[in-house]
């Protein structure tokens, strides 16, 4: 079991929190100016990357170099790809209906409500969910067998998320598929390969820190991420929206696993 430079890690926590807050504040200013708060979704991946980058700088001289580099690389590759994908997908589009609905019910100032209930909330979530990465960067021991498991799980998640997004983008770009529902590729085995991939990525990053007692104590972070993806603003809201707007989605839900990839139900029976 590796040990952690807890005193140096504790000193860095307010700095990484301030980093997340600063980035989301910048994106709040952009959203307020453009009246498109969907930009916060781009900030999500960038904020994880920024926190990991600041943690990498602060942990210099405190944590094992290989562990620090790996934690930064895995977080940055995931975060930058996600930000680029969401930015490309939302370019030129109007406000996200989710934020329109949320802000239409805002008591008092809609801008202040957006800042506190969208940007500030996500800034806090990024900081909390990234705690395993921050702990891993202060780990003094060299990487062991658990790191291999962590990398494999991260790779599974990254492939599911990236390939799932790529398949859906290609499907929507084909005029022959206009008005049709994506049911092929990874989407044949799970309705949300991108959300499943996200969860695997963050459980992998947790395992990178789990050979330290301090790392084990951050298990709530991947749990929170998984709950966000399944019961929070991810799968649950997407399924509800699709079921309300696409009549064929009910049959797709009946046949296809919601999260963990499984053979379609008719094939299993």
Walk me through this protein's architecture:
With 269 residues, the protein is mostly helical. The chain has one domain (6-260). It is 71% helix and 0% strand. It is built from 13 helices and no strands. It is globular and about 55 Å long. The termini are far apart. The mean pLDDT is 91. The chain crosses the membrane at residues 6-30, 42-63, 109-130, 142-163, 219-237. Pfam families: DUF1295. InterPro entries: UstE-like. Keywords: Membrane, Transmembrane, Transmembrane helix. This is DUF1295 domain-containing protein.
Largest sheet: none
Net shape: globular
As residue ranges, the low-confidence spans are: none
Number of helices: 13
Measure the end-to-end span: 45 Å
Structural class: mainly alpha
Helix content: over 70%
- Radius of gyration, in angstroms, nearest whole number: 19 Å
What percentage of amino acids are in beta strands?
under 5%
Number of domains: 1
Mean pLDDT value: 91
Give the SSE order as H and E letters: HHHHHHHHHHHHH
How many E strands?
0
SSE blueprint and pairings:
Elements: H1 6-34, H2 40-58, H3 65-90, H4 97-104, H5 110-129, H6 131-137, H7 145-173, H8 193-209, H9 213-216, H10 220-230, H11 235-245, H12 249-255, H13 265-268
């Amino acid at each position: 079991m590796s040990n952690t430079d807890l005193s140096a890690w504790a000193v860095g926590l307010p700095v990484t929190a301030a980093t997340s807050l600063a980035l989301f504040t910048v994106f709040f200013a952009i959203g307020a100016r453009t009246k498109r708060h969907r930009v916060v979704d781009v900030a999500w991946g960038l904020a994880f990357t920024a926190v990991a980058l600041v943690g990498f700088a602060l942990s210099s001289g405190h944590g094992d170099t290989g562990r620090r580099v790996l934690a930064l690389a895995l977080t940055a590759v995931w975060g930058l790809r996600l930000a680029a994908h969401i930015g490309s997908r939302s370019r030129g589009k109007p406000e996200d209906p989710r934020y329109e609905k949320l802000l239409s019910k805002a008591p008092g100032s809609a801008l202040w409500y957006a800042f506190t209930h969208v940007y500030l909330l996500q800034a806090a979530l990024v900081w909390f969910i990234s705690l395993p990465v921050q702990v891993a960067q202060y780990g003094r021991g060299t990487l062991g067998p658990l790191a291999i498991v962590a990398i494999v799980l991260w790779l599974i998640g990254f492939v599911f998320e990236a390939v799932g997004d790529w398949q859906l983008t290609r499907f929507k770009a084909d005029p022959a598929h206009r008005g049709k529902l994506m049911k092929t590729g990874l989407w044949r085995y799970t309705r949300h390969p991108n959300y499943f991939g996200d969860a695997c990525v963050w459980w992998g990053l947790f395992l990178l820190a789990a050979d330290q007692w301090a790392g084990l104590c951050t298990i709530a972070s991947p749990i929170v991420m998984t709950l966000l993806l399944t019961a929070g603003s991810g799968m649950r809201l997407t399924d509800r929206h699709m079921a309300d707007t696409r009549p064929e989605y009910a049959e797709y839900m009946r046949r296809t696993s919601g999260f963990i990839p499984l053979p379609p139900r008719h094939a299993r029976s």
